Amino acid sequence: MLLKVRPFLKWAGNKYQILERIRAVLPPGKRLIEPFAGSGAVFLNTHYSQYLVTDNNGDLIKLYLTLQAEGESFISYCKSFFTESNNSKSCYNNLRKIFNSTTETRLKSALFVYLNRHCYNGLCRYSLQGSFNTPFGKYKKPRFPEDEMRHFYTKAKNAIFLPADFREVMRAAGKGDVVYCDPPYVPLSATASFTTYSSGGFGIDDQVELAELARQLAGRGVPVLISNHATEFTLSAYKGASIELFDVQRYISCDGANRGRVGEVLALFDARLPCD
Ligand SMILES: C[S@@+](CC[C@H](N)C(=O)[O-])C[C@H]1O[C@@H](n2cnc3c(N)ncnc32)[C@H](O)[C@@H]1O
């Protein structure tokens, strides 16, 4: 078993837990493209010579770009916000207000790390107006992820980070690329719709378009791996791909309704493989 590097951000739906399964099916290639990067668990734990790491959360990508450009001095700056006096509801609300109003990228990026570790469950939630609105998390002593940020910085030397919609990124893929897509999960039931990663939901039409793009890319010789919940819908949308099914322990719902083991699917679209 290879060593695993933890992402420095807490991220809903992160794939740290199922890295082995993903690594086992990701085909080799020159460059890995991750259009739904999130905390970058897969980027950090694979060994391609180049990476294109993208996400439509602009705050997240600005943070990665700042860390990539500055390294140690930015890590120290982020650490300066992790003080005992900043770990109160009133300080949190004040720093969240500053995060939502500042136009200074360095400050905003450092506050993103602070909010991620001090907010409720590490949830990255925005209002319809685009303001970060997750409440205070009430943790005894939030840990500053210093080593994890260093690992990310080292790995970032071979990466390009871009804020972008998945469609734009996937259309630009070419020979030698491998694409790993980890979109927001499809709901497990009609009532459970967890689409709060950034403002603007990710609907069923987006899921269908993603599967269609994956098919097109595979047809052009670019393999695409998609992960998602295993539901009737995803199994039908990913028809023709090579499918792996397994269960995983997940904690994705505040009310506990979806706690427990849920079925996951890994669908590999690769024209070099025989279709089912
Ligand atoms: C399940 S999370 C990815 C988790 C990631 N694999 C990890 O290990 O942390 C899905 C990500 O998709 C991003 N996202 C949502 N809609 C998107 C879109 N239309 N284009 C690109 N990224 C999008 C969200 O901001 C979120 O970071």
Gross morphology is globular
The biggest beta sheet reads: 7 strands, mixed
Poorly predicted residue ranges: 194-199
Question: Please, what is the average pLDDT?
Answer: 92
Q: Mind telling me the CATH class of the largest domain? A: Alpha Beta
Secondary structure: helix percent: 25-40%
Measured by DSSP, the beta-strand proportion falls in: 15-25%
Number of helices: 10
Number of domains: 2
SSE run: HEHEHHHHHEHEHEHEE
Written overview of the protein:
This protein is an alpha/beta fold and 276 residues long. The protein is 35% helix and 16% strand. It is built from ten helices and seven strands. It has helices at residues 19-25, 41-44, 58-70, 72-79, 89-101, 105-118, 146-155, 166-171, 204-219, 232-237, and strands spanning 31-34, 50-55, 159-163, 177-181, 224-229, 242-250, 260-269. Strand 4 (177-181), helix 9 and strand 5 (224-229) form a beta-alpha-beta unit. The chain starts with 18 loop residues before the first helix and ends in a 7-residue tail after the last strand. Bound molecules: S-adenosylmethionine.
Descriptive terms for the model:
single chain, Rossmann fold, Adenine-specific Methyltransferase, domain 2, binds S-adenosylmethionine
Would you summarize the structure shown here?
With 276 residues, the chain is an alpha/beta fold.
Q: Layout of helices and strands, plus pairs?
A:
Blueprint: H1 19-25, E1 31-34, H2 41-44, E2 50-55, H3 58-70, H4 72-79, H5 89-101, H6 105-118, H7 146-155, E3 159-163, H8 166-171, E4 177-181, H9 204-219, E5 224-229, H10 232-237, E6 242-250, E7 260-269
Parallel strand pairs: 1-2, 1-4, 2-3, 4-5
Antiparallel strand pairs: 5-7, 6-7
Helix pairs in contact: 3-6, 4-6, 5-6
The structure holds S-adenosylmethionine.
